[in-house]
Amino acid sequence: MTTAWAKRLKQRIKPIYFNGQRAVARSLFAYSADGLEAAVRSVGIGDGDAVMVHSGFRRSSGFLGQPGDVVNVLLKVVGPAGHVLMMSIPYRGSSQRYAETAPLFDVRRTPSAVGVISEVFRRRGDVVRSLNPLHPVVASGRLAAWLTVDHEKTAYSCGRGSPFGRFLQLNGKFLFFDAPYGSLTFMHHVEDHFRTRLPFELYSAEPVTLRVRNAAGNELDVRQFFFSPEARARRNFATIEQGLQQEGQFKSARVGNSRLLAVGAQAVVTCAVRLIDQGQGFYI
Asked: Is residue 4 assigned to a domain?
């Protein structure tokens, strides 16, 4: 079998496999938007909450709707007094590799690379996106502008003055929809909060300059610090996940073939404090 022939065969089989996977899921695990709403409410998300969502959209989940239907459910659950936030990071993998491509981050046009639900949410006319090229946040709700304002002025993209700190002030909650705890970008805010107590420098010595275009169409330079090589190599956020599990902080639910997990932002910080005070920390 030649390599070219094998590649063509794989291309032909792939859609058949995925369509079969979807058909099986919808036969055995089908659930509707109403079922998703009930599951979200069951993990403690409700009216008036500020919720930061990390999500996946799998063919095998059994969900009968589209990504936009997931967004509509989330907005319905928190209601007009609540807030929904998501990450809209424009790259996969390393922020340094992304920066090496000399990108122009356009706050209105650059797509989110962290999932179709995030990208659908970003495109809504009633959401606001923060002007940060490394860790931009999209938010809806009456405080969306406050949550995202001046993010480009924060040289440490997840640090003080970022949307993560304001989200914490709102006593926010995290919701993982078919996504692992390890996808929690807020952990970088926790790192920054305790950086004077870490056994090494959290950030690189020198910042880089990245180009961004704001909502008015104007371009400007933004200075950003990367995480240091030692921080990237030694961080072990699984210790916080394990600590939260031991403390019973997680609320979970299953609907169809989907898994939902929720936890409070303050609980994450409190667990990190305990681990550091005990000398364990969250680094190898």
From this structure: no
User: For 74-104, how does the pLDDT look when each residue is reduced to its tens digit (9 = 90+)?
Assistant: 999 999 999 999 999 999 988 999 999 999 9
Which single residue is written with the structure tokens 């989330």? 74
On whether residue 7 sits in a domain, the answer given is no
Cα separation of the two ends of the chain: 46
99 token code pair? 């920066």
CA nearest neighbour of 177 among 73, 266, 89: 73
> Which residues does residue 221 pair with via DSSP β-bridges, in sequence order?
211
Tokens of 273: 């404090």
Whose CA is closest to 165, among 183, 192, 184?
Answer: 192
Number of structural domains the chain divides into: 1
Class of residue 67 by CB neighbours under 10 A (exposed 0-12, middle 13-18, buried 19+): middle
Range of the domain at 264: 30-277
